[in-house]
Amino acid sequence: MELGALVAQLLATPLDAAPGVAAWMEAHRQARAGLSPVDAAILGGAAADRLAYAFAAGYAAALHALCPSLPDGALVAFCATEAGGVHPRAIATRLDGAGPAATVTGHKRFVTFAEHADTLLVVASEGAGADGRNRLRVAVVAARGPGVTLSPLPPTPFTPEMGHAEVTLDAAPALEVLPGDGYARYLKPFRTIEDVHVHAALLGHLAAAARRGGWPQPFQERVLAGISAVRALSAADASAPGTHLALAGALATARGLVEESGAFWAGGDPALAARWERDRVLVMVAEKARVARTTAAWSRIDAPQD
């Protein structure tokens, strides 16, 4: 979609106050079919009546950007984190067998939207390679299929509507094993891709709220500029240090807009203002990992060239 058309549609997007995240995700899936993932994130964020639903739009879009082969309407959850974290060494979940006989066995600790997904992308190990490193792949598993148990976790203090679950897999059939290395092709770039699309949705949410609330036009313009920046980054190489540096700047801009918006939220509906104040800490989740990514990017840029 051309940027001008996107902005016009964004500013005219009606509010969708669907009762529950599952219903909202289904409505979003139908409404955004055929759009690029980043545009689906932006317009989904604009339609959301709360930050949790905006995050849902961005998260879903990020997974479709990560795996373009996924069916357009699939509702997907990414299963990576285990008891030891998300580092490749920590992945103990096993991928056994090959082809139609492939199965997945293991336990994932904290899976966002697992209860609402129809498809799971599961990071699993094929065992150690000749170099001793864990060889990872990503398997596609039916979320309600045999061998899959979902255990809902208590709501988080912010965006409690999002929902998380533990996922236990006991020889769960792999519908497909995605091509490419599970770490380099999927696990490593996902944080970058997720940041781009979730912040696209966040800024879409802010832009629509500002339009409906009659917030100052200069603020609205800066939000639209932020949307343009993250939209451009959605097409950049998610592994390149230059992308990470530009993304760090774009996310800093977004955080500034979130802070500035607090006064505008406070001047409107008290219930909406209270919910925004409760949920806006979501923006700072995983900030330590972002700082480490930016530091590593500067190190790569500054390293002597042969």
Summed up:
The protein is an alpha+beta fold.
Structural class: alpha+beta
Our estimate of the beta-strand percent is 15-25%
User: How large is the count of helical segments?
Assistant: 9
Question: Taking Cα atoms only, what radius of gyration do you get, to the nearest Å?
Answer: 20 Å
* Contiguous uncertain segments of 5+ residues: none
DSSP summary, beta strand count = 8
Q: What is the arithmetic mean of pLDDT?
A: 91
Biggest pleated sheet: 4 strands, mixed
Keywords:
alpha+beta; 4-stranded antiparallel β-sheet; 306 residues; 4-stranded mixed β-sheet; 48% helix
Explain what this protein looks like in three dimensions.
By secondary structure, this protein is α+β, with helices and mostly antiparallel strands. The chain is 48% helix and 17% strand. It has nine helices and eight strands. It has helices at residues 3-11, 21-31, 37-47, 51-66, 182-213, 217-233, 241-266, 270-279, 287-302, and strands at 76-79, 94-96, 103-112, 119-128, 134-142, 148-152, 164-173, 176-177. It has a four-stranded mixed beta sheet, covered by helices on one side. It has a four-stranded antiparallel beta sheet with strand order 2-3-7-6, with no helix packed on it. Helix 3 packs parallel to helix 5 (182-213). The relative contact order is 0.13. The model has no long low-confidence stretch (mean pLDDT 91).
